[in-house]
UniProtKB/TrEMBL annotation:
Pfam families in the cross-refs: Iso_dh
EC number: 1.1.1.85
PANTHER family associated with the record: D-MALATE DEHYDROGENASE [DECARBOXYLATING]
Name of the protein in its database record: 3-isopropylmalate dehydrogenase
Gene encoding the protein: leuB_2
Highest taxon above the source species: Bacteria
Subunit structure: Homodimer.
Natural source organism: Granulosicoccus antarcticus IMCC3135
InterPro entries from the UniProt entry: ICDH/IPMDH (IPR050501), IsoCit/isopropylmalate_DH_CS (IPR019818), IsoPropMal-DH-like_dom (IPR024084)
GO molecular function: 3-isopropylmalate dehydrogenase activity; magnesium ion binding; NAD binding
Amino acid sequence: MKNSFDIAVFDGDGIGPEITRPTIDILGKLAAQSTYELSFTDCPAGAAYYAKTGESLPKASMDVARESDAILLSAMGLPSVRYDDGTEISPQIEIRKALTLFAGVRPVRIFPGQRTPLNMPEGREVDFVLIRESTEGLFYSQGSGEVTQDEARETLLITRDISEKLFKFAFKLAGDRKSKGVGPGRVTCVDKANVFRAFAFFREIFDGIAKDFPDLVADHAYVDATALWMVQKPWDFDVLVTENMFGDILSDLGAGLMGGLGVAPSADIGLDNAVFQPCHGSAPDIAGMGKANPMAMILSGAMMLEWLGTKHNNAAMMKDGTRLRKAVEDVIAHGDGLTPDLGGTGSTSSIGLAIIKELAV
């Protein structure tokens, strides 16, 4: 069993460094009281770094990320800093593609005491996972689409190789959730197979992989209907799996159900590497003001502990990942001192301290 782990840290742009500090502090305190060790290495990258150097993702940073046990990546990008073609600086997408992090994991969970715009029926619980393919789809031609005076074209790519890996990951996750008593063991393929041949191909691969998991339920839904049902009956979902752009949109809808992007964590996972980062952007308009909500970043850190613990059979890490998630949920449920995005007057640092208090570390 492995007990020592190297973590590559990209502290990002805008509010990125502000939400990274309490996350690293909390993770360090948890490790210090347990049987595992975490070593953090700073990796420069991002829009501000590009503005200074003309380079958005240095080779040295990418090398550290590739050799690390996990990557903790904060909010990246600045609207005011762009490539010559007008697109924003997005090292996080470059990392996903370079390390083939095909499974974008976006948990959507509404627990007692959490703010939500939904009118939740009594006895209903929302706890599902959206899995977004993260390396191809409509993001495939990022920065290389064809644009003329009269038209623009982007290429959508779906490959059998990546899709098979993606669907196997989704079914295994649904099986793990079912074994823990979370969810019925159902995977829903979200596509637009009624219009696009590429998505009919996507669905065909899904159905083929589903045959290898006879103890789980496999079904389908069109993406537009899924958006409707995420509002009307999100408690019916277990694991959803979809293409890159569809997942990008639906994951923000899921964050809205939870009360906002400030409480929405994520992971991008491949066969060997994984990145853990908040779903939200760098919010440069509030950078340096102490108003940023660090919960999504901290919850992403909890996901990192659970992933590392599962991968390396380290029960202490799995336990701490669960403890950390529960501590964040308890702080939200108490409702005291929350940051402005959640209707409070608390600060980035006060939220970190409140979570530490819940953990008693």
